Amino acid sequence: MVDLDFSPPEGLTVSLWRSLLLNVIDRVAPERLPPLLLTSKPVDVGISAGDLLELPWYRTIFSNLADVISPEIQPPLQLESRPIDVGELLGDELDHGWWVSLLGSIRDRLAPERLSPLQLTSHPVAAFGADASLQILDWSSLITTPKVFLPDAPKEAAPSVSFEPAAPQAPVVARVTPELLLATRLQLTRDLGRTRFRRRIWIGLAAAEAVFFLVALFKFQ
Questions:
Q1: What percent of the chain is helix, strand and coil (3-state, nearest 5)?
Q2: For residue 149, which of 25, 97, 128, 207 sits 20 to 30 Å off, Cα-Cα?
Q3: Do 137 and 128 meet the contact criterion of CB atoms below 8 Å apart?
Q4: How far is the C-alpha of 101 from the C-alpha of 95, rounded, in Å?
Q5: Other CB atoms within 10 A of residue 127 CB
Q6: Does residue 176 contact residue 163 with C-beta atoms inside 8 Å?
Q7: pLDDT of 98
């Protein structure tokens, strides 16, 4: 792998006064470099996409009509590479019916295709001492001692279940104080008052809507 240098550039370690002096020198007496020599020739790519988007609509519509009426005749494409037979494409396989896939599966099960034996040109590398990128090592290459089988941990005995009926327990009666009864009564009275107030409001709104509809019906009839 290429050694990557993540250290900051040398310009960050230059002092403020030295950087200011170098900038003044570059402004007053800049370094004279030789003229740039271009060894490649520019290629005419036509109008760029940005300039094409800035053209008005009346220019692009005439060019589009010209392309439709008399398109530019391009020279025939010259292929220098040879096509490779990759078999049937995945899209064509999906277009077949289910019976084709069924027959193909039965054929592969009864008479599978015999492939040539695999030729390995590289030797297997032992896990211990291999490259540092291998994180999982073979257990047999790390420990050479015989296997030791430890006894199982003792199991806890299951608790015994008794089928005898349990002795009846006396019901626990909660003690109610007069203060609790008074607070409950006040809360119930307050809730009933709020409920009645809400009912009167809804009845009033319904009556007002009914009157409004009747007036509107007779007035605009």
A1: 45, 0, 55
A2: 128
A3: yes
A4: 11
A5: 14
A6: no
A7: 84
Q: How many residues does this entry show for the chain?
A: 221
Closest CA to 178 of 186, 170, 167, 168: 186
Q: What is the distance between the terminal CA atoms of the chain, rounded to a whole angstrom?
A: 92
Burial class of 140 by CB neighbour count within 10 A (0 to 12, 13 to 18, 19+): exposed
The C-alpha atoms of residue 70 and residue 62 are separated, in whole angstroms, by 12
Residue spans per domain, the chain: 180-221
How far apart CA 74 and CA 71 sit, in angstroms, is: 9
- Displacement of CA 132 from its chain's centroid (Å): 31
* Res 202: pLDDT: 92
What are the average pLDDT values for consecutive 10-residue runs of the chain, which has 221 residues?
A: 70 82 89 86 80 82 83 85 79 81 87 82 59 56 65 73 61 64 84 89 90 80 60
- The set of residues, in sequence order, having a beta carbon less than 8 Å from that of 52 and lying 6+ positions away, is 60
Kindly report the pTM of this predicted structure. Answer: 0.21
Residues ≥6 apart with Cβ < 8 Å to 111: none
Q: What are the residues whose beta carbons fall under 8 Å from the beta carbon of 11, sequence distance 6 or more?
A: 19
